[in-house]
Structures are given as C-alpha cells and as structure tokens.
Amino acid sequence: MKAFSSNVIFDFNRSGKPLAFVSLLLISLSVNAKIWLPSILSDHMVLQQNSNVTLWGWTTQTAETISISTSWSDSVYTTKAYQGKWALSIPTPEAGGPFNISIKGHETITLKDILIGEVWFCSGQSNMEWSPLKGLDNAENEIKAADYPKIRFFSVRKKKAEYKQDDAEGLWELCTPETMKDFSSVAYFFGRELNTKLDIPIGLINSSWGGTPVEVWMEKQTVASNSDLKKAAQQIKDYVWWPNDPGVTYNSMVYPFLNFTIAGTIWYQGESNRDIADSYYKSFPLLIETWRDAWKKDFPFYFVQIAPFKYGDSKTNREAAFVRDAQLNTLKTVSNTGMAVTNDIGDLTNIHPTNKQDVGKRLALWALAKTYGVKGIDYSGPLYSDYEIYGNKILVSFDHVEKLMTKQRHISCFEIAGEDKVFYPAKAKIKGNKVQVWAKEVPNPVAVRFGFTNEALPSLFDESGLPASAFRTDNW
C-alpha cells in the first residue's frame, strides 16, 4: 500500500513501521502550522476611530477560514485565506478602549490593550527623526513629564529595499518617559497637543531617516517616469550614512503600512534636496499625491517649512530658500495641506534646532483647526497673497492676518529688484495687514523677496505670534 503526503510517496510494509514515520511527519507539520500578523498589528496599537480598518496577515494553511471578533462588538467577521494570505475589513467605533481583538483559524491570536483613536504617520529626515536624547530644549523635564498612556508610539526600523516589502520591523509602545526619550520629538509634541486638546487616544507611527532626500520616499517608478525628477535624482550626492536611491525607503518603510488606516501624515524634510531645489517644486507635491493614491485616501498632509541654517557648502546662499518656496507653493496648490513655519525658531549653527515643542504644536494647530474642526484657533501665520506697485514702492498683501507685527525695531529680510533682476536690501513699513517695501537703489521696482536666503531670520508675525512665511513675487 502507498500513501501520499507533501508530494512524498511512502511504501508501507506489514510491520507498520513506516506508518509511525508518517505520523511523526504529520505531527511536525501540525506543530509548524502558524498564523501570523504584520508588526503594526499587535498589542497596544491604536486603530483609527469611526472607520473600516483592515486587519491582515498570513497562514501556513493556504485556504484557511479566518474569523475575527472584537470586544467592542458582538459581530464576528470571517474571510478565507488565498494562497496563505488573508485580509478583512472591520468597523471601528468612536474613540475609546482598551479593547481586545481575537483572530481565529487553526490557532487563536489575541491582541490586547487596543485603543481606538486617531493615527498619524510621521515621516521625513533627521528633524523628524530627532529624539529628546539627541537634543531638545528643557529635555530633562519634558522626558519626566511624558506619561501619556493614551498616546502610543510605533518606531519603524530603518531599512532600505529594492523591492516592496510586506512587513517592517517595529513595536507599539505606550508613551512613558522611557519610550518618549528615544522617539521623534516633533511627532511626540504633535501627538501630545492632539491628545490633550481632543481627549482621545493618539497613535504615532514614526518612519523617518536622517539625511534622506524626498526621492527615496517615493515609488521608484514615479521618479523614473518623470524625466525632470529622474535627472534630478541622478544629481543627489551619495553618502554612506543614508540611502539616496529612489524608492528604497518607500519600499521598506512606507509600503508595508498602506493597509493600515491613518488619519493623516506629518512631514519634516527638505534640507537634503536643497542642491536640486528646482525639482522639489514637482517632487514634493507628487509625493503627497502618490501617497494618497497608495493609501486610497485623501488624507491631510501637514509639513514643516525647513528652518534657517548656515550651510557650509552653499554657493549662492539661496538653495534652502528655494526649498522653502517650493513648500509654500505646495501649500497653495495642493489641497488639504498645512505648513508650520519655523523661521523664528531656527538655529544657524545647528541644523537640528532644539525647539521641537513649537514645531509639533504648530503642526497640531493645523490638524486641530482643519482636520478636527476646533473653532477659534489661529493655525497659520501670514502668507503672501499679492502685491501692487506704487511708484518706487511695492505694497505686499497677506492672507491669514488682520494686523502684522514685528519683534524687532526694524523689519528685516526684505529685498527688492527692478527689471535687471538684481535684488537690494529694502526698507519696509507695516501698514495694517500689508507691508510697504522700497530701496533707493531701485527706482522702478518689479519684484519683492522676503526671508529669501538660507540663513534669513525674519521678524514678521501675526497677532498670535505665528511667523510669516518666506516668499517671493518673482519666478526668476
């Protein structure tokens, strides 16, 4: 007699000894049978409230039936694995918890201490990655006070990959002084502001890598199919400390989370694109568009306008200014975006300014006002709107302000130019919510720039103290 198992043929003799061998083989297969989940689905996680969230995973039983039940509902949801992979969408209630989730197949997995709230994906380069231990104002007291059990952290391990990955290494943790000190400061202060103002659980996924240009966070094909971006990517300087090839962190640090429902994204990046700033006018909006397409959701995207810094390798002292201008242009042309301006809290000697409290808070102001509908919040500083020429003067108008103010004796960082495109330092005078600009060297002005150098430290604010963004009226 012959038996078939795992494509192996066994001959049985009358003593029955091979039968014992087959039994051991079947027992071994049973012991090795397994259901497993991506790292983002684990104890202590936060799921997006009032949503249909996806739970997914794998099984060694290729066509197994998987059932899911939750402690917030009496419903049971089922699906069948296809070639060992399964996914299931389940509804979530309003913010609350803790809850449990049970996932059953040939074995049972129970996820515990699950909160329902708001989940934000936090990404970019080093200023997003920077933790309190690496440099933060009042770090000792901030770390001691970081006891927020309804804020949860997930730190994505740095990894690059040539191909899209199904999973990424990471672990959900409660916000404690011990976990906060190694987590993104900007993400923490953003999350803390939402948690305290909205009184709901907050999940923060930190997927960032210092030094990385925007192209590594985009799908490789997106860059390759655009001739301008492809050419710009070839000019990116090569460093051993961080990846520079298009797509390699998207594959390993973004793609694995596309099934995970998020409320939105916060982003702090741009310094590494200053040498190819012209392309940032295309690449940054395209990053937002392609991420939204990949997540299948038009989520809010709030970002930080990079801070002033004295770059030692600068040739024109304007490279970073064009990155800031590209960021301002993105704010004005891409819907559902917001920009935190930082030109008043930069540090010309430190590319990682240690005032991350205000950065996180300013991002949160956008979220509170625009995503969560909190009334009475001044969420944006003055943004350039328009200009008019009056003889030898230009009058500049702003949005998001009723009355401008300065913290200096004289308003600085304005420049003015004529048809020759040569800019001269200008004098400026506040007139309500407008600024009058002029320079004796330019009798017939045609263009104005404000804060348009790498290291400009302007002083122009609205009544609440939020700074005006750098801008230019020209397209030279």
- How much of the residues is beta strand, in percent? 25-35%
Largest sheet descriptor = 11 strands, mixed
Put simply, the count of helices is 11
Structural class comes to: alpha+beta
* Helical content (DSSP H or I, runs of 4+): 10-25%
As residue ranges, the low-confidence spans are 1-31
Radius of gyration: 27 Å
Distance between the termini: 86 Å
Q: What is the gist of this entry?
A:
The chain has 476 residues and is an alpha+beta fold. The chain is 24% helix and 28% strand.
Descriptive account of the structure:
By secondary structure, this protein is α+β, with helices and mostly antiparallel strands. It has four domains: 2-32, no CATH class; 35-115, Sandwich (Immunoglobulin-like), CATH 2.60.40; 116-371, Rossmann fold, CATH 3.40.50; 383-472, no CATH class. It has helices at 17-32, 126-129, 139-144, 177-180, 185-198, 220-224, 227-233, 248-253, 277-295, 319-333, 356-371, and strands spanning 2-5, 8-11, 35-36, 46-48, 52-59, 65-70, 76-80, 85-91, 96-104, 108-124, 148-155, 172-175, 202-208, 264-268, 301-304, 337-340, 383-390, 393-399, 414-417, 423-425, 427-431, 434-438, 447-450, 471-472. Strands 4, 6, 7, 9, 10, 11, 12, 13, 14, 15 and 16 form an eleven-stranded mixed beta sheet that branches. A four-stranded antiparallel beta sheet has the order 17-18-22-21, with no helix packed on it. The chain has a four-stranded antiparallel beta sheet with strand order 20-19-23-24. The longest helix has 19 residues, at 277-295. The chain is elongated, with a radius of gyration of 27 Å. The protein starts with a strand and ends with a strand. 44% of the residues are buried. Residues 1-31 have low confidence and may be disordered.
